[in-house]
């Protein structure tokens, strides 16, 4: 019987908070966000004239991408008894980052409608069986 050591949730959350707190330079964050390959789908309004190099936007996307990557890697290491706690804490952090994303202020030219809504997501390649 193989014994596997499960990781403590609070140690993982502490590591995640350190990752999100100590951000790289804005240029490095921009490069990392580009490598994360987010997809942006306009839902309402014309987003083509918006500045997607906005520092607030890049920081929020970077944080969400890092959170997603961290969760994918570390979830398997959490014991089954702690998985619900881990998911709740990660969801709280995700909610905070999504609120930060929603608060991004874009400088809009006059011809862009006030209401702009977009869907931001990541596509992952399907695993072949």
- Secondary-structure class: mainly alpha
Outline type:
globular
Order of helices and strands: HHEHHE
The structural domain count equals 1
Termini separation (Å)? 27 Å
Beta-strand residue percentage: 5-15%
SSE inventory with pairings:
Blueprint: H1 9-21, H2 26-36, E1 38-44, H3 55-74, H4 83-102, E2 117-122
Antiparallel strand pairs: 1-2
Helix pairs in contact: 1-3, 2-3, 3-4
Describe this structure in words.
- With 129 residues, this protein is mostly helical.
- It has one domain (17-106, 118-122).
- 50% of the residues lie in helices and 10% in strands.
- It contains four helices and two strands.
- The chain has helices at 9-21, 26-36, 55-74, 83-102, and strands spanning 38-44, 117-122.
- The chain has a two-stranded antiparallel sheet.
- The longest helix is centred in the middle third of the chain and has 20 residues, at 55-74.
- It starts with 8 loop residues before the first helix and ends in a 7-residue tail after the last strand.
- 10% of the residues are buried.
- The model has no long low-confidence stretch (mean pLDDT 83).
Throw out a few tags for this protein.
129 residues; mainly alpha; two-stranded antiparallel ribbon; 4 helices; 10% strand
TL;DR of this structure?
The protein has 129 residues and is mainly α. It has helices spanning 9-21, 26-36, 55-74, 83-102; strands at 38-44, 117-122.
């Amino acid at each position: 019987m193989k014994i596997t050591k499960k990781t403590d949730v609070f140690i993982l959350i502490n590591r995640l908070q350190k990752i999100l707190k100590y951000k790289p330079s804005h240029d490095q964050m921009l490069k990392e966000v580009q490598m994360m390959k987010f997809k942006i789908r306009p839902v309402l309004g014309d987003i083509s004239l918006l500045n997607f190099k906005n520092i607030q936007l890049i920081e929020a996307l970077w944080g969400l991408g890092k959170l997603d990557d961290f969760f994918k890697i570390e979830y398997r290491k959490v014991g089954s008894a702690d998985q619900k706690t881990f998911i709740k804490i990660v969801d709280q952090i995700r909610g905070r980052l999504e609120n930060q994303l929603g608060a991004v202020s874009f400088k809009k030219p006059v011809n862009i409608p006030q209401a702009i809504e977009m869907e931001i997501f990541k596509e992952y390649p399907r695993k072949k069986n």
